[in-house]
Design a protein that fits this description.
This is Type II secretion system protein. Keywords: Membrane, Transmembrane, Transmembrane helix. Helices cover about 25% and strands about 20% of the residues. The chain contains one helix and six strands. A hairpin with a 5-residue loop joins strand 5 and strand 6. The longest helix has about 50 residues. It is elongated and about 105 Å long.
């Protein structure tokens, strides 16, 4: 009996026996199930990486927004006067120390009910110490759209800065917290360039 060339069977070495050609075998059911399981696990791991990357891609935007808020608030504080007397004091322009103030010495924190966006309004760097904002507002007290979930806190303290004495320099710390626990902290300094700097 003669077999066609494409047949899966070939003549055995001994007459009367047929054998399968070597190299032609399929997957068993167990191997197929194992392959599907391994591919499923690998696909799940790859999808988790993509999900994490997608979640993390929003964080830089939140971080940039928190940084912009912190920089804006820091600039607002640093642009305020840094004087020995409260700017409402009669001797604010001439005082060279707290002893020269007529009635209101400038201290850390607001004096006489001063507030950021009300009357009387903050009029010195020191006044911002302890300011907290829950939802970001401009200096007039108007809510900034899209920033209602952000909070900000300002701390102002005397701090020596190199050869500048602590009575002549203030360290300003602005901390802004946004959604998903995003937090940015900026430190800045304001020095007294002259007794009545900033007026």
């Amino acid at each position: 009996m003669r077999l066609p060339a494409h047949s899966a069977l070939r003549h055995a070495d001994r007459p009367g026996r047929l054998q399968l050609q070597t190299g032609q075998r399929g997957l068993s059911l167990i191997e197929l199930v194992m392959l599907i399981m391994v591919l499923g696990i690998a696909l799940t791991a790859i999808l988790q990486v993509f999900i994490q990357a997608t979640r993390a891609s929003a964080d830089p935007q939140l971080q940039r927004q928190a940084l912009a808020v912190a920089e804006s608030l820091m600039e607002e504080v640093q642009l305020m006067p840094f004087t020995w007397c409260d700017p409402d004091d009669a001797n604010v322009d001439t005082a060279t120390s707290t002893a020269g103030c007529a009635s209101v010495v400038e201290v850390i924190g607001p004096e006489g009910g001063e507030q950021r966006s009300g009357t009387p309004q903050f009029d010195n760097v020191n006044d911002y110490n302890g300011l907290t904002l829950s939802g970001i507002t401009d200096i007039s007290g108007n809510a900034v759209p899209g920033l209602s979930t952000y909070t900000a806190a300002v701390k102002v303290a005397n701090a020596a800065l190199g050869s500048v004495a602590s009575s002549e320099a203030l360290q300003i710390t602005v901390t802004v917290t946004g959604p998903n626990g995003v937090q940015v902290t900026l430190d800045g300094f304001r020095t007294r360039h002259a007794p009545n700097a900033g007026l």
